[in-house]
């Protein structure tokens, strides 16, 4: 050090350095309104998607119940015919479905879903003459339950 008390060499100068103060923490909160608007839009879009999913899931409860009953029906054509009728009554207005029989009933199933033509005669005879190819009827019924279009 010299006579004024000032350091004269580099080591003394470095010794007098002090640590700079720490900067304040950086906030993760968006600073502009655009991010708030985007966040709100994303939240509402997600909420709308969940709401639509829940509506669809609740609306398809009759399908899940019919498929479960179809699994229990095994190869009983009369039970399969009853399950198809109940599923149709749950999905469509009663006045459109309840009075259908025979060829009209098969035509309705073919128009509303992918019901194969070969399963039609088996379905028409099912309540009155058990037997026939119940496996084909069961597969056709399962396909119709899964793929038919619901009434608006």
Q: How would you explain this protein's 3D organization?
A:
By secondary structure, the chain is an all-alpha fold. It has a domain of 87 residues. The chain contains eight helices and no strands. The chain is rod-shaped and about 125 Å long. It starts with 9 loop residues before the first helix and ends in a 5-residue tail after the last helix.
Sheet with the most strands, sense and barrel status = none
Count the helices. How many? 8
Low-confidence stretches: none
| Residues in β-strands, percent | under 5%
Alpha carbon gyration radius: 36 Å
Record field, number of beta strands: 0
Question: What coarse outline follows from CA principal-axis ratios?
Answer: rod-shaped
Q: Overall pLDDT, averaged? A: 87
The helix/strand series, from N terminus to C terminus, equals HHHHHHHH
Helix content: 55-70%
Strand-pairing-aware structural class: mainly alpha
Q: What is the first-to-last residue Cα distance?
A: 95 Å
């Amino acid at each position: 050090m010299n006579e004024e008390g000032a350091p004269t060499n580099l080591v003394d100068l470095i010794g007098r350095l002090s640590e700079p103060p720490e900067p304040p923490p950086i906030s993760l909160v968006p600073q502009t309104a655009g991010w708030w608007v985007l966040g709100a839009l994303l939240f509402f879009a997600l909420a709308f998607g969940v709401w639509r999913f829940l509506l669809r899931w609740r609306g398809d409860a009759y399908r899940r119940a019919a498929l479960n009953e179809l699994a229990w029906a095994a190869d009983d054509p009369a039970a399969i015919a009853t399950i198809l009728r109940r599923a149709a009554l749950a999905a469509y207005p009663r006045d459109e479905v309840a009075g259908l029989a025979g060829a009209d009933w098969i035509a309705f199933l073919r128009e509303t879903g992918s019901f194969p033509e070969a399963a039609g005669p088996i379905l028409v005879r099912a309540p009155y003459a058990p037997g026939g190819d119940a496996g084909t009827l069961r597969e056709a019924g399962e396909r119709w339950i899964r793929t038919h279009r619901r009434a608006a």
